[in-house]
Amino acid sequence: MRWVEVYRVRRWQSAFHDSIYMLRTQGFKQNTYRKFQLQGWDDAETLVYTNSAGKFVGMISRGTSADGSSSIFALYGN
């Protein structure tokens, strides 16, 4: 992994998902998607995109408020 960025956002979750999905136009394909629960991370998910050159971009996200309006995202890649 070469880089990691962490964001805490309010009412902006779809913008992060949309930016990851836009990688498809750059030759990336979805490799992994999973929703999970882990000690209070009720709506956590992970998403990884890879390309044929061995590059990857991933995201781990989780909601931080009961109403789903706040989230934490960690974006990472090489």
Report on this model:
The protein is mainly beta. The chain is 12% helix and 50% strand. Strands 1-5-4-3-2 form a five-stranded antiparallel beta sheet, with helices on one face. A hairpin with a 6-residue loop joins strand 4 (56-63) and strand 5 (70-77). It is elongated. The relative contact order is 0.31.
Question: Keywords, please?
Answer:
78 residues, 5-stranded antiparallel sheet
Summarize the SSE layout with pairings:
Elements (H helix, E strand, L loop, with lengths): L2 E8 L2 H9 L7 E8 L7 E7 L5 E8 L6 E8 L1
Antiparallel strand pairs: 1-5, 2-3, 3-4, 4-5
How is the largest sheet built, in terms of strand order?
A: 1-5-4-3-2
In terms of structural class, how would the helical and strand content be classed?
mainly beta
Using the CA coordinates, give the radius of gyration.
13 Å
Helix content: 10-25%
Shape: elongated
Mean pLDDT score:
82
Low confidence ranges: none
Helix tally equals 1
Strand proportion, as a percent range, falls in over 45%
User: Which series of helices and strands comes N to C?
Assistant: EHEEEE
For the report, how would you describe the main beta sheet?
Answer: 5 strands, antiparallel
